[in-house]
Design goal:
The protein has about 100 residues and is mainly α. It folds into two domains: about 1-55, no CATH class; about 65-104. About 65% of the residues lie in helices and about 0% in strands. It is flat. The two termini are about 35 Å apart.
């Protein structure tokens, strides 16, 4: 009985991995394959080669950083737009952040 549960778990994990793997751009996927081949051939001589397996995530910008960036870089709003336009746009940004947080 336990083997059946293990097989189901493995199938679920494989499905999730394949789903995640299919979302990786081809160029990035190829880069990872090439890096792994290099590591596999040099890891015994150079332990630093294993550094490619370190998680390399960039932190998401803070809401304040987004606001500052919008103020300095976004020229889509002219001076004729009032505060209601800014509030509506900020609510859309906040909604997108909530949806993104729920997906992760």
């Amino acid at each position: 009985m336990e083997v059946q549960g293990d097989k189901q778990s493995l199938a679920t994990i494989q499905d999730k991995f394949n789903e995640l793997d299919s979302k990786v751009p081809d160029g990035l996927h190829q880069l990872w394959v090439e890096q792994e081949l290099v590591v596999q051939s040099f890891w015994q001589n150079t332990l630093q080669a294993m550094d490619i397996y370190e998680v390399q995530l960039e932190k998401a910008p803070t809401m304040k950083a987004i606001e500052i960036d919008l103020i300095h870089n976004d020229h889509s709003f002219s001076s004729s737009h009032g505060s209601a336009t800014w509030i509506a746009w900020a609510l859309k940004v906040e909604q997108a952040q909530i949806v993104l947080a729920m997906d992760t």
